[in-house]
Model the fold of this input.
Amino acid sequence: MRERLRQMRDEAWKRISEADDTGELDKLRVRYLGKKGELTALLRSMGSLPPEERPDVGKLVNELRGQLDDFLKERLHNLEARELEKRLEQEAIDITLPGRRPAFGRKHPLTQVLEEIETIFVGMGFEVVEGPEVELDYYNFEALNLPPDHPTRDMQDTFFISDDILLRSQTSPVQIRVMEKQEPPVRIIAPGKVYRVDVVDATHSPMFHQVEGLLVDEHTTFGDLKGVLGAFIEAIFGEGRRTRFRPSFFPFTEPSAEIDVECIMCNGKGCRSCSNAGWLEILGAGMVDPRVLQRVGYDPQKYQGFAFGMGVERIAMLKYGIDDIRLLFENDMRFLKQF
Ligand code: DAH
Done:
């Protein structure tokens, strides 16, 4: 019996010493000290011993139980510490690694150009106003001197929602809406989307952006118009860029002009972008027709005004050398990231 005890102790000691993780240790605890464990079994078999030996052997078994228990606890403690250390090591964060740079968004090139245009005009004392994209025929055409069935309406075919409601084909109707509400002096620009029945190609889109401008005051002359637009063109395209005023026609201005800027691609020499003309058209403008002023209740004897309208896509394309308007609407990040 004593021999068996000694054997068991040596064996248990060895196994416990060699146990490699807490799971294994737990199995050994059950194996030796559990209810059905080896030591318990030994204790039960004491009935076969001569009565005089029983107290001694009983004491030995209990001693061994205590020793094994202590040893198991000690090993458990050590293994737990080791496992914790290992886990901490694995989960460690390398604080010397460079961080991941968040991808910053940026403004769409059209928004950038639009904001630049606004800043330039605000600097000259203009106020930024907006009007509806779904507009009445009256504001889009009639009040701008384009009566029903008049041939000038053909210049701008648009999308009709009903007989007298349409998607505005120009930002000019905002002129009327502003003048109806306030007395001169008026100094506004009106940016926004406009719509036309156009087939999509490199220079056409059924939706695009315009900025309208209107100034009405006493003693306003064509010289003022030239001064303001000249300053604008210089600010947006750079100093020294030549401009040219060409006589033109718009129903709501008289006289009317189209303004060309020296081709940005070839500096006026003539190239594909300017169809060898050396000039690119960027603005329509003119002195507000007295009939338009009269209609909103302004006295044309006292007040004069000038107005202008430009396409934002056109200006963005010229400024950045973009040769296809579709690029501005396709949302290809490789394109948009360049601005
Ligand atoms: N609304 C015109 C267009 O879309 C542009 C324009 C021309 C606006 C002359 C004006 C202007 O205010 O005076 O073609």
User: Anything to note?
Assistant: The chain has a mean pLDDT of 91. The first strand starts at residue 127 and ends at 128. DSSP finds eleven helices and nine strands in the chain. Strands lie at 127-128, 134-136, 165-167, 186-195, 207-217, 243-250, 253-262, 279-288, 304-311.
